[in-house]
Inverse folding.
């Protein structure tokens, strides 16, 4: 099991028995199901800082985080972590809404995706009146709003995956594959992990239990698995959730949601997210601990649940395996804008909305835009423009800087008809190396918003070689 990062909350400070300015935490994590890895999490409980985990899950000890008392500034954690042998993200620090931008680590993204909603709802489970129908309605509306530039999902279109020399951008194209209500009885496997907290949890499920439910429901519905399917698992009111039976990092004491993946028996990558019920009062916690937006435009707890689900969904799209898009601190696209909602479009106090998606109104956190180095509620890419390049000529292997506008997120460059892969992009420039086989001709840059072609040609030539001097004549001859 690999847990890239987790967030600790201070909103309900009594849950961690915080009585001073801060508290150092120690944490030990034991493995769960084979092949599992948790990463890129988490929608943190309100007032959070982050605590890193790595794969395979080591025992981590020492001062992993300082949890501020409510009303005091959040502090970045200081931690010592073991080396990571795979190209996965670094340790996460406190969420930031400033640069640096997300960087690409080479892993896959979900260029398109299909969402499946799973509700774990044994007999007697409790939900708000319209929880499931509103969540299902959201995913239906999202599917109907494909390619819209007016919602938070549009920000994902800046990001891409690379195969060889081809960059394939993410499409703002989600499909809703349907929902399933799983009435299998819960087995309490981790309520003991809440000992010592003020929460009263009698039934608790681990990540292994979540994975078993996902596998069970995939089989029951014959749903497809792989890199384009994501399974959103929603828990009812009053049910606890912990990573395993050794960790004390659990829902309502450490996290509000997370996304993860595992390999099934056939080697398929199964992507999923766990969304505990956002109202923690069902276990004696704060009703606002996981409802950081505090706005319910649909007058239901589903509003808070949707916000958590979108956080995990967008991160799964841009960083499904923990090795695609994140910043140098390990923050993913939603982490960088956690609890940042921008300007509301309308609605009364307590029922404001900042998104109109399909026929629905929602209050969702913003997502990170590399193009503007900021958090955004919408994103509309502008067609790229090439104003020049330097040098004007060069041999294969020459580094070339292409200048212009709207070049951020460039997915491809061509020298005449030969493709090259950008090595660095910004709004005003693209850096690329002249590829093997390139010939003299115009330079082309492709971004998700369009294609730009230079007005002059780049000359591809062989570097001059040093020649020995040859004497052909002289004068006078005497």
């Amino acid at each position: 099991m690999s847990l890239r990062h987790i967030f600790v909350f201070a909103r309900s400070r009594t849950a961690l028995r915080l009585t001073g300015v801060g508290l150092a935490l120690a944490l030990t994590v034991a493995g769960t199901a084979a092949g599992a890895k948790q990463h890129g999490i988490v929608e943190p409980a309100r007032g959070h800082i982050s605590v890193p985990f790595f794969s395979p899950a080591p025992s981590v000890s020492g001062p992993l985080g300082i949890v501020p008392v409510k009303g005091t500034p959040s502090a970045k954690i200081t931690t010592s972590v073991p080396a990571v042998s795979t190209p996965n993200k670094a340790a996460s620090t406190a969420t930031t809404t400033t640069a640096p931008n997300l960087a690409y680590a080479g892993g896959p993204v979900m260029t398109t995706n299909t969402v499946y909603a799973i509700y774990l709802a044994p007999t007697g489970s409790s939900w708000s009146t319209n929880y499931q129908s509103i969540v299902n309605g959201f995913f239906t509306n999202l599917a109907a709003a494909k390619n819209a530039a007016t919602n938070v999902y549009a920000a994902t279109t800046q990001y891409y995956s690379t195969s060889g020399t081809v960059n394939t951008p993410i499409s703002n194209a989600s499909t809703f594959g349907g929902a399933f209500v799983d009435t299998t009885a819960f087995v309490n496997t981790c309520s003991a992990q809440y000992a010592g907290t003020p929460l009263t949890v009698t039934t608790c499920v681990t990540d292994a239990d979540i994975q078993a439910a996902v596998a069970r429901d995939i089989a029951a519905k014959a749903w497809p698995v792989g890199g384009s399917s994501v399974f959103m698992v929603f828990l009812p009111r009053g049910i606890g959730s912990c990573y395993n039976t050794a960790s004390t990092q659990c829902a309502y004491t450490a996290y509000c949601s997370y996304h993860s993946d595992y390999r099934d028996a056939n080697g398929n990558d199964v992507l999923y997210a766990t969304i505990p019920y956002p109202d923690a009062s069902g276990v004696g916690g704060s009703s606002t601990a996981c409802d950081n937006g505090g706005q319910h435009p649909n007058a239901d707890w589903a509003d808070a649940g949707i916000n958590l689900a979108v956080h995990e969904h967008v991160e799964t799209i841009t960083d499904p395996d923990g090795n695609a898009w994140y910043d140098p601190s390990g923050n993913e696209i939603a982490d960088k804008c956690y609890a940042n909602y921008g300007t509301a479009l309308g609605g009364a106090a307590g029922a404001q909305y900042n998104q109109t998606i399909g026929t629905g109104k929602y209050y969702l956190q913003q997502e990170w835009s590399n193009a503007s180095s900021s958090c955004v509620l919408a994103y509309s890419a502008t067609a790229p423009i090439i104003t020049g390049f330097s040098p004007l000529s060069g041999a294969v292997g020459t580094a070339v800087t292409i200048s212009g506008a709207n070049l951020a997120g460039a997915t491809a460059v061509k020298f005449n008809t030969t493709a090259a892969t950008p090595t660095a992009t910004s709004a005003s420039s693209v850096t690329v190396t002249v590829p093997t086989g390139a010939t003299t001709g115009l330079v082309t840059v492709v971004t998700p918003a369009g294609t730009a072609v230079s007005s002059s040609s780049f000359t591809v030539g062989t570097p001059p070689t040093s020649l020995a001097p040859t004497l052909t004549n002289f004068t006078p001859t005497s």
In short: Residues 385-460 form a domain with the Immunoglobulin-like fold (CATH 2.60.40.10). The radius of gyration is 26 Å. The chain has three helices and 27 strands.
